[in-house]
Design goal:
The complex is a heterodimer of chains A (about 400) and B (about 270). Chain A is of the alpha+beta class and about 400 residues long. In chain A, about 35% of the residues lie in helices and about 25% in strands. The chains are: A alpha+beta (about 400), B alpha/beta (about 270). At the A-B interface, helix 4, strand 3 and helix 5 of A face helix 5 and helix 6 of B.
Chain lengths: ~400, ~270
Amino acid sequence: MLEDNLEDLYENAPCGNLSTLLDGTIAKINGTLLAWLGYSREELVGRRRFSDLLTGGGRIYHETHFAPMLAMRGKIGGVSLELRAKDGTRIPVLVTSIVKAGSEGQPQLIRTAIFDAKMRRAYERELLNARRAAEREDERLRQLVSKLQRSLLPAVLQTPPGLESAAYYRMASTDDVGGDFYDLFPLDDGRWGFFLGDVSGKGIEAAAVTALARYTLRAATVYDPDPAAALHNLNTVLWQEYREDARYCTVVFGILTPTPAVGGFTAVIASGGHPEPLLLRADGSVHHHPTKGRIVGAFPTSRYTNTTAVANPGDTLLLYSDGLTEARPVSSETTDGRYGTAALARFATHLAPTNAADAVAAVTDLLGTFGTGLTDDAAVLAISAPPSRR
Amino acid sequence: MEDWRMRVRNRNNVVLAGREDGPTVVLAHGFGCDQNMWRYVAAKIGQWAQLVLFDHVGSGKADPMAWDADRYASLDGYADDVLSICQDLDLQQPIFVGHSVSSSIGVLAANREPERFSALVLVTPSPCYIDDGNYRGGFTRDDIDELLESLDSNYLGWSSTMAPLIMGNPERPELGEELTASFCRTDPAMAQVFARATFLSDNRADLAAVSIPTLILQCAQDAIAPPEVGAFVHAQIAGSRLVTLDATGHCPQLSAPEATAAAITSFVRTAYR
C-alpha cells in the first residue's frame, strides 16, 4: 500500500485543509494551503481567523451567509470565495466546511477543504462576459425596434384646423416590430387624409410591408384623393410585391373635409377588410360606420367602395385595430375569450359623448387592464369635432 | 381594506409567534438571510413576548412579485415596509429588534414615527460600513465594490450556494428538510440591490435623532461591525445602553443565542418597569 502515510496525505493533499475553532480561529492548516497563501504556520495558527484570509467582499459574504448557514446546517459546500495571499494576490477557491461534533453532539470545531478554482472562475467570467454581451445586444435590438416602430408612425399627429385628433399605439412586445400603422395628413386643398391599418405578421418583414403601405397610400392620395382608388392602388402594389410571401393588410382609409359653417366634418371612407370605425355621437349614441371591401394585397383584383360619414359638433370618429378587440382580458364575456366588438361598442357607449383626446385616453386605460391578454399590437386613432358653443 | 392587509402580510411573509399577552417584539433580519435567523432567540424571548417575524422583500419567502428594484434600492423602502407591517397588524408600541442592516432600517422607521415604537434593540449595528475620515467602518469602497461584483460576476457560486442540494441533516432533526433547504436563500439579483442599499448607505446622521430607549448589542469579535462601530452608535444615540456579548461573528443570535436573548430580556424588563 503506497498511501499509508496519513500525515503526508493531510499535509500535501491536492486541496487545502483547514481546521478552525468555532470562533473561526485557525487551529490546524496543511502545507498545501500554507504554500498557496505564502504564510508560515506560526503566522496563522492560533493567531488568525479564517475570515482574515478572505478578501473584503468575501469576508462580508462569509459573515452574512457562510457562517450562519454552517451554524444552522452543520455543513456547507461548494461556495465560491477568494483568499488573499500574504503578498496580496487573490486566490479563487471553492470551499466546503463541516462542523465536527463531540460525542455528546456538541459542536467542537470546523473542518474546511479548500479547492483551487482558478479555472472555474475563468470559466464563470467567460460565461458572465457572454451574458453581458447578450444583454447589450438585446438592448441594442430593443432600441432598433423602437426606433423603427416610431419611424412607421407620425412623429407628431397633425390636427385639421377646428377639429381635434389623438392617437395611441401600443406594442405587444418590445423586441419585435408590430404591424399596425396610422396617419393623419393635410392635402393641399384643405382636405385631410387619414388611415389606420394592420399588416399581417410581425417583425421586420411586417415593418417593410407597413412602410410600403403607408407611403403608397400617401403617394396615391396626391394624384387622386379618392379612398377606394387608393386602396385599389395599394392592393395592386402589395399583390405584385408580395404575392409569393402572402403579405397583406387591412386598412381603413378616408378623406376628410372640414365643414367650418357647421363645425364638423364629412369623411369619405373606404375599408379593406378592417374592423368598422365607430362614430360616437354628441347625443351619446354609438354607431358602427358600415364599410365593405376585401383585405388588401391578398387577391389580384379587389373592389373597394366609398361611404360617407358626417360628423357634427360633439361627434367623434374612432378607428382601431383588431389588437384591441382580439385581446384576451382576464375576465372575458365572449366564448372565445376575446374582448370582442360588442364589448368595445358598449365601452364606447359609456364614453359618448366625448372627444378625441378623452376617447383615446379611455382606450389606452382599457388596454392597460388587459395585461398579458394583449397579445397583438393595438392602434387607435380618433378625430372629433368640438361640441357647439350653443 | 382586508385585501390590503393580506397583501402586506403576504408581501413580507409575516409570522406571529410567542405569547399573545406579552409585549410585542418585532424581529427584523439582516442582509443575506431571513426570519429563520431568529430561530433560537425566538424560542427564548417568545416565552414572554408576542413575536412578529417577517422577511424583507427580496429575501426568504417574501412575495417575489412585490419586488421593485427602485423601491428597495434604499433603506427607506425597507423602513416603509416595517411601518406598514406595524400599521397593518395594529401593533401597540412594539419593541423593534433589528439585526445588522435592519438596525439602520429600524432607526429610520423610528425616526419617522417615534410614537409608534416603545424601544429599539440594535443587534451588531453599523450605520456606515465604509471608512470615512476618522470614522472606521471596517471596509473600503473597493471591498464593497468587490462584494457587489462578486454578487454579479460570481453568479454561479452564489446561485449554487443559495439553492444548495437538499441534504439530510440527521444530527439536527429540529431543523427539518424544508428549513435546511430554504435557510438564507436569496435571489442573487435581489441580493445585489439589497447589498448595495446596505453597504453603501450612510445613516450616521440619523442616529442622533433617535428619541426612544435603545439597546445596542455588539459582539466582542465581529469582522463586519467591529467594537469601535458599536461604540460610535452608542455615543451618537443619547441615553442608549451598550452591551458587548462574549461572542464571535456578526450573528450573535446564532453563535450566542442564550446571551442575546438574555440581554434583550433584561433590557425590556428595565424598560417596562
